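[INFO] parsing input record for Acetyl-CoA acetyltransferase
[DEBUG] input buffer:
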Amino acid sequence: MTLPDLDPRTPVIVGVGQASERIGEPGYRRLSPVGLAAAAAREALADTGADAAAVAAAVDTVAGVRQFEISAPGIPSPLGRSDNYPRSVAGRVGADPRRAILEVVGGQAPQHLVNELAATIAAGSAEVALIFGSEAISTIGHLAGTPDRPDFGETVGGDLEDRGYGLEGLVTPVQVAHRLMDAPSQYALFDNARRARLGQGRREYAAGMGALFAPFTKVAAANPHAAAPTERSAQELVTPTEANRIIAEPYTRYIVAREKVNQGAAVLLMSVAAARRLGVPEDRWVFLHGHADLRERDLLDRPDLSAGPAAVTAARHALEQAGIGVDELEVIDLYSCFPIAVTNVCDGLGLPVDGSRELTLTGGLPFFGGPGNNYSMHAIAEVVHRMRALPGAYGMVGANGGSLSKYSVGVYSTTPAPWRPDRSAELQAEIDSAPPVEQAVMADGWATIETYTVKHRRSGKRTGIVVGRLEADGRRFLAVTADGDEAALGLLTAEQPVGGRIYVRSSGSVNQVTTG
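[DEBUG] output buffer:
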């Protein structure tokens, strides 16, 4: 297809922008989340190559990705916050949209919003959409206790399509009762299950995680927006030290997402008709060739805790829609909050995980930084730049939310392509139709360890978390170790706990495991 043949409603990405700052470095401005997002949005408007003011005035839809402090009830905002984040950012850049959206929680949000609003433009319900997100966690933590702390509070009012937190199923009451609420512990369950499936020992698997992420550090070291631009060796990443303490086995601090960042990113989409009317040069246009949005079932309902098939299915569908194979991708950015988020997709698509294939364009969440739900907006910005520099090539972004729970994919190229609806709803119905694993909320009796982790606190205290199967009927349960049960912790820190025999006993709303 050639550009003149395109339907005028075909969506195209015409501008991307990023903004960042690091405390103590030249140019540090103490920007709020709104300020960072606005800086990125201004860059995206300028990136179109057209009159930025005219483009801003044409924006009819804005969509904001939630910051951490507005991602769950009761989270404090020590420096204050906007009552309408999307419209605060829009006002800073000269836009007055008729529609403002605040998306649900999850790292899938940036790519999902691109997919959704591209479809909205293709349907003729919008013409120009500006998507953005930001985090100033580092600045907020640094300034919250200072006497001259800034006030980030804003009251702008206006309509807002607040979609809620979207936390349903991500953390269940059973998980809360068993202290399985934090992301490192949940992801550690998946990585330990994968290690058992592969039949690898602790050292071998740790070496693999290091080999996977060492190239990411090299990319981050060259990225001016990276929060931790330091190249590290594979061994350094996974060797426990005082600075690189164990968080939740098998994770050391260096290989988990880094949330202390000041980063913002923005993406501007519009119809071909709007791009022509506003004078956006055609060499700025990047097309969405394939896209998909799928959700995995709740954590304890999944039959195999060593993999997340919904993410793989989403990636395969997006590639199929684009009409290419994975080997035809010139660049890839896979969400990398923890190793399993990368290896899960690589295992499913047949991509190497030994560092021989570049799997990030930013440097990844542990090294570039994990700006809350907005990381993949930076990945999209990077892939757009790469596609413009490599006309006709293809790039893919995989965005993950929850605990391998939500996955959104985009395949990009400068090659003109019509808008193609995806089959995500049909594929989701297939995922949802499979029966969940039968569970024992209260469990008693001998059991087998299915997967596990051991949480390490700074104080040195350790707590084991176990997903097991009752010997009597095969039902799955969640349990923790009792305080001071060194025998149970000894079993969980042995070479391979998975498959080991353990005894579980219920008490109140909590299951506890021990060795006998």
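[INFO] The mean pLDDT is 97.
[INFO] shutting down worker
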